[in-house]
Amino acid sequence: MDLHFRNAVAADIPAIVALVESAYRGEVSRAGWTTEADFLDGQRIDAEGVAADIGKPGSVIVLAEQDGQLLACCHLENTGEACYFGMFSVAPQLQGGGIGKQLMQEAERVALAWQCAAMEMTVIDIRDELIAFYQRRGYIRTGIKKPFPYGDARFGLPLRADLRFEILRKDLHGETP
């Protein structure tokens, strides 16, 4: 699939929120394999948070489009030695078709242009299939865990009491971290 990549602007915020919500929350997310609907309810992101990511120095939301239609997005933030990769979303009906792989390659190209040596992300550690997807793309489990923000509805309404994040990392120069 021939994709066009660009950085998001404020006018893209409603489409970004709709895409991310559709990929992770509610019944529509069940059309794809990235759904979190079995263990999180409520919102995944909000317009305010997306606007903050767009406006923050060293932070971009990369959009993947075809014929002007938003198909996928991710958030990148230059944290110094590493680049944080998050908000990775592909339209549920298009998941598994290679769009995500292309967007990840673009994200890594941006991180290298920023002179970041590694890419890092946080993944809910019970997401075995999702973690395996990232491992096939060179990410490793660091064993570093972070607590899930229980009680902060901006991150969703947990349906389980055992949620936590694990940091995954990929050395962008091909060396083991």
How would you describe the overall organization of this protein?
- It is a single chain.
- With 177 residues, this protein is an alpha+beta fold.
- It has one domain: Aminopeptidase (3-Layer(aba) Sandwich), CATH 3.40.630.
- Helices cover 25% and strands 33% of the residues.
- It is built from four helices and nine strands; from the N terminus they run βαβαβββαβαβββ.
- The strands form two sheets. A seven-stranded mixed β-sheet has the order 1-3-4-5-6-9-7, with helices on both faces. Strands 2-8 form a two-stranded antiparallel ribbon.
- A hairpin with a 2-residue loop joins β3 and β4.
- The radius of gyration is 15 Å and the shape is globular.
- The model has no long low-confidence stretch (mean pLDDT 93).
Per DSSP E runs of 2 or more residues, the count of β-strands stands at 9
The dominant shape is globular
Main β sheet profile: 7 strands, mixed
Proportion of helical residues: 25-40%
Quote the average pLDDT.
93
